[in-house]
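**Fold in tokens:**
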Amino acid sequence: MGISTGVSSVNGNVHQIYTSGSNIITNAVGQLKVYSLSGTELISAPVDGNYTTNLKNGLYIARFTDTQGTVSSAKIQIR
């Protein structure tokens, strides 16, 4: 017997999350959260596909939740 995690299935990322300069781009409307690699939440904002940040150059974790509640995440680099 294995250990139950409470997760019935994993679908992977449904949404595209990527950067262009200081812009974080998604392919849907929803809520964007950005975290430092140490886990500190830096941004929590509604987005309509494009969000311009004032983050310093570096690596971050982006978590995007669409209006249907589907969550995707990605490691992003701001340059």
Notes: The chain is about 0% helix and 50% strand.
